[in-house]
């Protein structure tokens, strides 16, 4: 499958990996929008949040626990951070492998543009 994040997950494309286990990988975004900006993805190819199946519900909660662990390890919990998921065209999704952005260490505005 021609998916850049599957290729990152299986090591065909190099990336700056900050966390990895059997189900999930996290790596720094190549075009960071904040001093800390990494992506957390399932190794399983799921096109977007809109394509989640019932069987993926444990994986989704697991991803959020991984985000909690990474942000704790990076000491981000006190100042805070933002988790972003872009789904589909109007959501601004460019890579069709579900991913969660985590941005931190700058004061982020709301609402987004
Ligand atoms: P989206 O717009 O789909 O939510 O976000 C995709 C993100 O993936 C973008 O922030 C983009 O910079 C990042 N990205 C795309 N290709 C690569 C890549 O090959 N390596 C890394 N590290 N990030 C990528
Ligand atoms: Zn993929």
Automatic annotation (TrEMBL):
It comes from Anaerococcus faecalis. The lineage of its organism: Bacteria, Bacillati, Bacillota, Tissierellia, Tissierellales. It comes from the Bacteria. This is Histidine triad nucleotide-binding protein. It holds the Pfam family DcpS_C. InterPro entries: Histidine_triad_CS, Histidine_triad_HIT, HIT-like, HIT-like_sf. Residues 4-113 form the HIT domain. CDD domains: PKCI_related. A motif (Histidine triad motif) lies at residues 97-101.
